[in-house]
Amino acid sequence: MNRLGQWSGQLLLYAAFAATLAVFSHWPNYQHLAPDRAVIKVSFTHQGQRLGDCTVQTPAELAKLPPNMRAPTRCPRERAPVSVELDLDGVLVLRQTALPSGLSRDGAAAVYQRIEVAAGQHRIAVRLKDDAHSVGFNYHREAVVTLRPAEILVIDFDPAHHQITLQ
Amino acid sequence: MTLVSAASGLRRAWRNFEHGWHRITVAPSEPLEHLGAIAGLLLLLLLATGSYLFVVFDTSVSGAWQSIDQLARTGTFPGGWLRSLHRYAADGLLLVTLLHLLREFMLGRYTHFRRATWWTGVPLLLLVYLSAIGGFWLNWDQLGQYSALASAELIDALPLLGATLTRNFVAVHAVSDRLFSLLIFIHLGVPLLLLFGLWFHLQRIHLPQVLPPRALTVGVIATLGLLAAAAPIASQAPADLARVPTALHYDWILLHLHPLAEAFSPATVWLLIATVLLVLLLLPLRHGVVAPVAVVDADFCNGCRRCVDDCPYSAITLVAHPNAKAGRQLAVVAASRCAGCGICAGACPSAMPFRRVATLATGIDLPQRRIGALRQRLRQALVPGSHKIVVFGCDHGAAVAALTAADVVSFSLLCSAQLPPSFIDYALRIGALGVVISSCTEGACEFRLGARWTSQRLGATREPRLRTHGPAPHYQLVFADGGDEPALVAAIAGLRQRATMRALP
Ligand code: HEM
Ligand code: SF4
Ligand code: SF4
Description:
- The structure holds 2 protein chains of 2 kinds.
- Helix content of chain A is 17%, strand content 41%.
- Chain A has 2 helices and 10 strands.
- In chain A, a hairpin with a 2-residue loop joins strand 4 (82-88) and strand 5 (91-98).
- The longest helix of chain A is centred in the first third of the chain and has 22 residues, at 3-24.
- Chain A is elongated.
- Chain B is α/β, with parallel strands linked by helices.
- Chain B has 2 domains: 27-241 and 249-285, Cytochrome Bc1 Complex, Chain C (Up-down Bundle); 295-503, no CATH class.
- Chain B contains 17 helices and 8 strands.
- In chain B, the strands form 3 sheets. Chain B has a 4-stranded parallel sheet with strand order 6-5-7-8, sandwiched between helices. In chain B, strands 1-4 form a two-stranded antiparallel sheet.
- The interface between A and B is large, with 49 and 48 residues.
- Bound molecules: protoporphyrin IX containing FE and iron/sulfur cluster (2 copies).
- One iron/sulfur cluster is lined by residues 296, 301-307, 331, 347-350, 363-364 of chain B.
């Protein structure tokens, strides 16, 4: 057998292994967003309003319950789904309705959407509805924003102040 | 074409490929035959370099980037070098694991007794991916930011957590030290799980080779060491959640799933993962030809343990002998683990052809190719005055049946190590001119340890040892895989010549 051939073959193998690692651990660059684009993210987790109102239980109803469960009012736990719409420069770009989480549909509804836009100035309008009883949306926010390339605008909902936030 | 014949076609093609491949590699450092062991070495390298990184790592969100980035800035050695080694070892581990899987697949090593080993290998592949991807997050540079968010998006696409993981990476203040601790925990915990999984993977492998032979170990470490010095890894700009990371220096070896999810959809990636996993997990259910397993004959087993020590798949255990005095033991074969390789029969002291019994029964034997029948056929072939050269070979190695010279008689065994060494002496005693033992090369042995045991037994360093009487050996051990038949022909010619010399007055 040709020892020299084998040794050079073996060296070549090590070199090929190293070259594969060196090249594909760096290259080619990944341009995950084109240079003149920006991103709008609609991201919130929000608890919709409860579907039903609390009702006062009559003494007769209370009597039927085990003693440890005799609360004076009864509140249904299920919450309304949360709907959101986004207009970008007057065009509807997102319409989504998120169901509350949890087995009894009493948790928060979550929305996460990533929308690529051209960098520059945009007029945005956000509408949100978290109440099954009212018609139309119960929160609105309009703004003109200027996005630099690669900038991210996050549209969120602030439950403490009951408003849609842009940051 | 049936699945079985497709599998055997692949197997033949791969064997041919490896046979040609041997021409360009140095035998003990042959990488293809040690892929599992190279993966083990890379894992060890990752643990060692990872321990160093953990010591210098700042576990807070604000300090993490700085603590790793400065390794590359304050002179490359040893910090930057160890960090680069850590990354390259991770890249290497995934590639080598995939190659290991490919080779075992091509050789059809996933059915019957290998099923459990294959099945326990599949989660290891997942854990390698998971450990590696998690490592990028800890740098908390733009690549880490991109990967963390892309991973969260991928997980949120499953109807599990109500799409809330991504929220952790949406706003600048969202990534808390607590969340970051979780990321660190993943990168520490998953590799530990991997080690644990490896222990399962090797449960049915007797004497597993978890590290490559020394020369190959040195070669792999030197290659990665030089690479880490020549092309050190540097962090990218620190994570900034208010901006999309653009133009990333991208690790395509480890992070290819993110762009795939981007180009198609997270659902596509999950579908791909599920399909691959399903195929890998269902593959072992294919039924090929099942080889009959070893059978113990309690009357001839004295509990000497040799078969236990030699069985490549830990298929034999010893129990108290039911019909003998206290303290004596009996071999028991676990059928589901047994490869039907016959190596145990070659180890058994009762497989002694000189015994004066009409039919040679042994402590452990393979019903499809009995040791007693081998003695019978040997006697028939070596009638007085026949002057034959005997060749003992293996079904999986060089084709001994194809040797057609008139003075040659060949016996193909389940594995060369099925041959009890005393048969060599026996053949010579009853008139063979010479004996050739053809064994596969060590890395090519179908049953892992057959070639090693054959050479140790014939070299008298392992029981049962070959004892030959008389002068210069009239036998020769040849390492010949399929395609190496000319080496056998040459060995036969050599023995023939020596025999002629001896016959001269
Ligand atoms: C971190 C990943 C892995 C490591 C470190 C590893 C390591 C090993 C080692 C050390 C052996 C024993 C080699 C010997 O002594 O003969 C082995 C055998 C084996 N591995 Fe893996 N392995 C890994 C992943 C996998 C995967 C993903 C598969 C396939 C799904 C796989 C399938 C097998 C099979 C079928 C064998 C048995 C070979 C035989 O019966 O001769 N392994 N592995
Ligand atoms: S035939 Fe092979 S695998 Fe089966 S018990 Fe014997 S040595 Fe072990
Ligand atoms: S080698 Fe033979 S005698 Fe020894 S334990 Fe195994 S079967 Fe029994």
